[in-house]
């Protein structure tokens, strides 16, 4: 299923290599020996988790249904307009952002607010419905950052 998730993300305009620099910027102040390769490894490790795969497939499916006009009102307009009072996109994403501990929610909030790199691109992609996708991308990066932080601490403590 991991390959299908990666293909699905790609179809929606998100390559794994787009997430790497965002994760690097987020974590490099804390991890001096960080490399792009390490970032990519952690992103791919996060995508191994079934909970995360399910959340991604669910969120993207809703984005696609909204894009094709296949949802009923009022949900259709809510998703198409990325209604700021909706919040279910964030709830779904937060669920996966915190799979590696609560530090994930801090990272998620930071990414959601600052919208670095690919996240900004998704947020301003006209004609596409990325209501769930932008939060999912934040959550994947947040989870990868948390995974990295916990592993770093573990390896330092011997
Ligand atoms: Mg959203």
Fold and architecture overview:
This protein is an all-alpha fold and 158 residues long. The protein has a single domain, classed as YutG-like (Orthogonal Bundle), CATH 1.10.3760.10. The protein contains nine helices and no strands. α2 (16-27) packs across α9, α3 crosses α9 and α6 (88-97) packs parallel to α9. It is elongated and about 55 Å long. The mean pLDDT is 92. Magnesium ion binds next to α9.
List key phrases describing it.
about 160 residues; mainly alpha; binds magnesium ion
List the helices and strands and how they pair.
Layout: H1 2-11, H2 16-27, H3 36-46, H4 50-67, H5 75-80, H6 88-97, H7 103-114, H8 118-123, H9 133-156
Helix pairs in contact: 1-4, 2-3, 2-9, 3-9, 4-6, 6-9, 7-9
Can I get a quick summary?
The protein is an all-alpha fold. 69% of the residues lie in helices and 0% in strands. The protein has a single domain (2-157), classed as PgpA-like (YutG-like, Orthogonal Bundle), CATH 1.10.3760.
